[in-house]
Design a protein that fits this description.
The chain has helices spanning 18-21, 32-36, 47-50, 71-79, 91-99, 145-152, 156-164, and strands spanning 4-12, 56-59, 83-86, 104-106, 119-123, 128-131, 137-139. The chain starts with a strand and ends in a 5-residue tail after the last helix. It has a seven-stranded mixed beta sheet with strand order 4-3-2-1-5-6-7. 28% of the residues lie in helices and 19% in strands. It has 169 residues and is an alpha/beta fold. A hairpin with a 4-residue loop joins strand 5 and strand 6. The chain has one domain (4-164): Aconitase, domain 4, CATH 3.20.19.10.
């Protein structure tokens, strides 16, 4: 995981819940490619055909509210999303995403500074988000060294396995 991520923005409003990110009707799917095909299909039917690895989601408040299922974070990561920047997050979604290795950055006011398709640069350690298309800059909450370590390990389980010298499951 890099401390700086640059990608095309997909922009969403407030209160996008986990069932909108990944509908509960697909919970029996386990293949990441199949799971990814259903990412945000109820909110943005074009998302999965337009998203490319390294792209970024930008959202208003309370992104990921709702269920405690990890599927929403798994889905976005499998679809190629490199980071999610929002004004605020549902707390359980926030921890699930970080623990699974998907960077989430809290950035007040970001929803009004980015439009779909614009290029954004997310500087996680510095706590800065730059709209490279317009030049707008927003202050974000920097990610702690511990969270960046989790992300660098691609999740908390791989980080702990490495720390303890354990093999993967």
């Amino acid at each position: 995981m890099e401390d700086v991520i640059t990608g095309k923005a997909f922009v969403y409003g407030a209160n996008v819940d986990t069932d909108q990110i990944y509908p509960g009707g697909y919970l029996d799917l386990t293949d990441p490619a199949e799971v990814a095909r259903h990412a945000l299909e109820r909110v943005d039917p074009d998302f999965i055909t337009e998203v490319e690895p390294g792209d970024v989601i930008v959202a208003a408040t309370n992104f990921g509210c709702g269920s405690s299922r990890e599927h929403a974070a798994v889905t976005l990561k499998a679809a190629g999303i490199a980071a999610v920047v929002a004004e605020s997050f549902g707390r359980i979604f926030y921890r699930n995403a970080i623990n699974l290795g998907l960077p989430l950055v809290v950035c007040p006011g970001i929803a009004g500074l980015v439009r779909r398709g614009e290029r954004v640069r997310v500087e996680m350690a510095a706590g800065r988000v730059v709209n490279e298309t317009t030049g707008a800059v927003a202050a974000a909450q920097p990610l702690s060294a511990y969270i960046r370590a989790i992300l660098a390990s691609d999740g908390i389980k791989p980080m702990i396995r490495k720390q303890w010298g354990l093999s993967a499951e």
